[in-house]
Design goal:
By secondary structure, the protein is α/β, with parallel strands linked by helices. It contains 15 helices and 18 strands. Strand 3 and strand 4 form a beta hairpin.
């Protein structure tokens, strides 16, 4: 249109440059998926940081599929199978967290036989800091690096990065952040807090300092995906911003728009080089149901392969259940869903009937390190003195797991 209206005369170099840019983008992107011009962006935002409104041709069905095997007649619970290049994941299922490419106190080779795990969760942030995603890529990706043959999911690194901030921060282009307000919420922070780690948070992404050597590392929607390509997991997550429970509504709304722009940019980067990986969107909006609905409406309009439920999900299980009862029915039934960071036994019992497919949490290994054993009869606090003389008693005589079959309560207490 620009060319035709200017064809009778010499049009200026600016118009010519615009035509060249538009021609380049149209010629090399075979787009079959378009979305509205959303989310709204600040007027100062440069074009590279806007959310894409069209995406290249993308069909992951050759290597990633989800099938529903059975639906409950009494609840929204369902049994399914997620097919990936490294095996099938039966749902509903628990996903152990292998933070540094290893589940604490378990080796990757023995993990499947000891735990019946079909999917494990590795943290991109920690793998970037050490040993470095490039080293993992040179080793052949996470599967070969850790000698693990089953499916793997990696996160974007955003949860750990934003967990290093003070509460209520992370929206403005600042380099100074407040201390935590002390407000508790159901989903905890990402482990240790390394003071002074965050250098800047801008529309482009986040710059933080390595907790090992102080080196500055840039994490953007594009670089997060590139790191996850180097790691080579079966399922990857787009870069998003994590805000705490007690953030203001204004900041929550602005953060949602930024997160949507980041997720769309992440998806575009992923589709440009799928590498037999699937990408799950992350539904945000805090405890605001209207914002959660807005997040679902936008992200389900994009060609994501599954949907994770992220962000703050409340201060207690009652708030979490209210939120999940609202969110899960609005997600596409034909695609898998995942609840990020929740996986204690009570939550599993509560959330499976809602239709949640998979859960990840470091709860079991954290509980074990503190001497809590999970049994059919309830939690067993192995460090209690009363367990010292139970040398003839297994943890659970009906259990067939390695520990119950080979060790007594007294020995484990010791």
């Amino acid at each position: 249109a620009v060319v035709s209206t200017q064809s009778t005369g010499a049009f200026n170099s600016g118009c010519f440059h615009l035509v060249r840019v538009l021609f380049h983008r149209v010629s090399f992107v075979r787009s079959i998926h378009t979305v509205p011009n959303y989310p709204p962006a600040p007027p100062t935002l440069i074009p590279e940081h806007h959310a894409p409104t069209s995406f290249p041709d993308y069909n992951p069905n050759e290597y990633f599929k989800f099938e529903i095997v059975h639906k409950s007649s009494k609840s929204n619970a369902r049994v399914g199978r997620i097919h990936t290049p490294h095996g099938t994941i039966e749902t509903p299922g628990f996903v152990s967290v292998a933070t540094n490419a290893c589940i604490k106190c378990l080796d990757p080779v023995s993990t499947p036989s000891f735990t019946n795990q079909q999917l494990i969760f590795c943290n991109t942030y920690h793998m970037i800091v050490h040993p470095g995603a490039d080293i993992v890529r040179e080793a052949g990706g996470l599967h070969k690096y850790m000698n693990y043959t089953g499916p793997i999911i990696t996160d974007s690194g955003g949860f750990q990065v934003f967990s290093m901030m003070g509460e209520g921060e992370g929206l403005d282009d600042k380099t100074e952040f407040n201390e935590s307000s002390g407000i508790d919420e159901l989903k905890g922070k990402g482990g240790r807090v390394y003071q002074g780690s965050i250098v800047s948070v801008k529309e482009e992404g986040v710059v933080f300092k390595s907790y090992r050597d102080g080196k500055k590392i840039s994490l953007t929607p594009e670089s997060s995906v590139d790191f996850q390509k180097q790691l080579g997991a079966d399922i990857i997550i787009p870069f998003d911003e994590l805000l705490p429970y007690d953030v203001t509504e204004e900041k929550l709304h602005l953060s949602l728009y930024r997160t949507h722009r980041w997720e769309a940019r992440s998806l575009y980067r992923h589709i440009s080089n799928p590498q037999k990986q699937a990408m799950y969107a992350v539904i945000h909006g805090g405890n605001n149901l209207d914002l959660r609905k807005e997040s679902i409406d936008y992200l389900t309009s994009l060609p994501f392969d599954g949907f994770a439920i992220g962000g703050s999900i409340g201060r207690n299980k009652e708030e979490m259940l209210t939120l999940l009862k609202f969110i899960v029915p609005l997600l596409p039934a034909e695609k898998p869903n995942h609840l990020l960071g929740i996986g204690d036994t009570i939550s599993l019992d509560l959330c499976v009937p809602l239709g949640v497919d998979t859960f990840d949490s470091s709860y079991p290994t954290r509980a074990a390190r503190h001497g809590t054993l999970l049994t059919k009869a309830g939690n067993l606090l192995i460090k209690k003195a009363e367990n010292e003389r139970k040398s003839s008693q297994p943890i659970d005589p009906t259990c067939k797991c390695f520990s119950c079959q080979n060790y007594s309560i007294a020995y484990l207490h010791h």
